[in-house]
Design brief:
heterodimer; A: 222 residues; alpha/beta; six-stranded mixed β-sheet; four-stranded antiparallel β-sheet; 7 helices; 10 strands; B: 302 residues; alpha+beta; Alpha-Beta Plaits; 2 domains; 9% strand
Chain lengths: 222, 302
């Protein structure tokens, strides 16, 4: 599903953010991307989302070289990826329903399908009863769940999360991680970037450790 | 497909105003500023068009005085007179002998003593030409230049008609209007560019979110462009109102003078072309400014 081959990324030709990073993630696999702040985790995610292009090496997703995509094709690729951030970045003017519906509206789904899929996504994160409320009345944990519902509403084959539990207490963190595990069991490839060791060590998934832009280790946490 | 097209555009219109509803004061100030800015070339354009309307309502002709050399023989003078009469722009040719010129000059108050110079009259003989009314000022000036080159001609004096003078002023004014329209268009585009750029900066997280959700640049830009179109249209209308206001005040202040010039009643009304051009220029410039600002922001993000 994901294939990083000797990927290097430098900014302004000097600062080397990634240096020869290689790893593969099979379809339906879940992995943690860990490392200290500034190690290069976010760069890997940005490359994976097509926000940056690799300076050397190649990044492939489902056999597609991301450096070859641009404009509309890149936008269509992103429509097939789900993203969860530390800050859910919700549109405060829109209702919870409309926030979750955003990826579907962008991708051009019919209104009938949108209603069905949004309701399904909201039930998955237990927020069906809050659909018509504005995000600002929700707690931060609920807002994060809205963000997760938005990330999975279009049933992406790949789910990318950047510090998804950074703002949550341990109980909510565990709940969010359980959700990711469920998505993985449904066949979604999940890559979670986090520096929280407790979260990583609590789950039996592969751990890709990045240090100073290089791959330090790649293996399961248990 | 059509349903999606309509929904995308409906959503973009909704987003354009939904997102802007907390900033109506800022938008209103921008619209008024752009309106005032656009009113400057707008009013000049209106004045130019109104002056063009005034021109045909007067029938005054330009006049040319052709002073002859003392040495010019009668036969040569007759040839010159025939040639002047044959000029298509010339209606009448009247010979003014120097004695007549002196007596006419002496008739002016305080110049009676000049009449005593009859024996030693310093004035030359002359031809007084009346030109075709509403002739082009360029053609009249060309004729004057041509007459100045004639062998028996001492000097030529040109007295342009009101039309000719108006045409001259209009030519300069049209150039000024075009230059001001270009400058104002640039100014409006820059103002919208700066405001939209600030807005895009403020909306950085939203732009990132939509990008990550797979929205195309066209989709992301649409609400900003629609708002720019509405702002442009409102600015154009504000400019038209300012032009109408200035015109109303000036028309009443100079009503007597304008009536003396024989201005038709509708010459003072702001013409629909001015309204349309102001709105179109405002919309286009506003669109360009917003489009550039958002495109630059998106480029900078990736």
């Amino acid at each position: 599903m994901i294939q990083f081959d000797a990927v290097g990324k430098s900014y302004d030709g000097h600062h080397l953010a990634l240096d020869g990073v290689s790893f593969r993630l099979a379809p339906g696999e879940m992995a943690f991307l860990t490392g200290h702040s500034g190690a290069g985790k976010s760069t890997i995610l940005r490359l994976l989302l097509g926000l940056e292009k690799a300076t050397t090496g190649s990044v492939r997703v489902a056999g597609q070289d991301l450096s070859q995509l641009s404009g509309e094709t890149l936008a269509r690729y992103r429509q097939r990826v789900g993203t969860v951030f530390q800050d859910p970045n919700l549109e405060m003017d829109l209702t919870v329903f409309d926030n979750v519906a955003l990826p579907l509206r962008i991708a051009g789904f019919a209104e009938k399908d949108i209603a069905k899929r949004v309701n399904a996504a909201l039930s998955r994160v237990d927020l069906n009863d809050r659909a018509m409320e504005k995000p600002h009345v929700l707690s931060s944990g609920q807002q994060q769940r809205v963000g997760i519902a938005r990330a999975i509403v279009h049933r992406p084959a790949l789910l990318v999360a950047d510090e998804p539990t950074g703002n949550l207490d341990p109980e909510l963190s565990a709940r969010v991680m359980r959700m990711f595990t469920q998505f993985q069991q449904l066949g979604v490839t999940v890559l979670v970037a986090t520096h929280e060791q407790a979260v990583v060590e609590s789950l039996p998934f592969r751990r890709i450790v990045i240090e100073r832009g290089r791959l330090r280790s790649d293996g399961t946490s248990r | 497909m059509m349903q999606r097209w309509f929904r995308d555009h409906r959503d973009a219109w909704y987003a354009a105003f939904q997102r802007d509803r907390h900033r109506t004061g800022q938008s209103a100030i921008l619209v008024i500023l752009l309106g005032v800015l656009l009113a400057i070339p707008g009013w000049l354009a209106h004045a130019t068009l109104s002056m063009q309307q005034l021109t045909p309502s007067t029938t005054e002709s330009s006049e040319v005085l052709v002073f002859l050399k003392e040495s010019l023989e009668l036969e040569d003078r007759m040839i010159l007179e025939r040639r002047l009469g044959a000029e298509p722009q010339v209606i009448t040719v009247a010979f003014v002998p120097k004695a007549q010129a002196l007596s006419e000059l002496a008739a002016y108050d305080g110049l009676a003593s000049i009449g005593e110079l009859a024996e030693d009259n310093p004035l030359p003989d002359a031809y007084a030409l009346t030109l075709v009314p509403a002739a082009m000022v360029d053609a009249e000036q060309a004729l004057v230049a041509q007459l100045s080159q004639e062998a028996g001609v001492l000097a030529v004096r040109y007295f342009p008609s009101i039309q000719a003078r108006l045409a001259d002023v209009l030519r300069v004014l049209s150039g000024v209007v075009i230059a001001l329209v270009i400058l104002t268009a640039l100014g409006v585009s820059m103002a919208v560019f700066v405001v939209s750029g600030a807005e895009a900066f403020r909306d950085d997280r939203r732009l990132q979110l939509y990008t990550l959700l797979g929205a195309s640049r066209r989709y992301i830009r649409r609400p900003y462009l629609y708002r720019a179109v509405v702002q442009g249209a409102l600015s154009g209308m504000s400019a038209s109102l300012v032009v109408w206001g200035i015109n109303t005040v000036l028309s009443s202040a100079f009503s007597t003078e304008l009536a003396r010039l024989g201005a038709p009643n509708d010459a003072l009304m702001v013409r629909w072309e001015v309204w349309v051009v102001l709105c179109v220029v405002a919309i286009c410039c506003s669109w360009i400014g917003a489009e550039r600002a958002i495109a630059m922001r998106l480029n900078r993000m990736h």
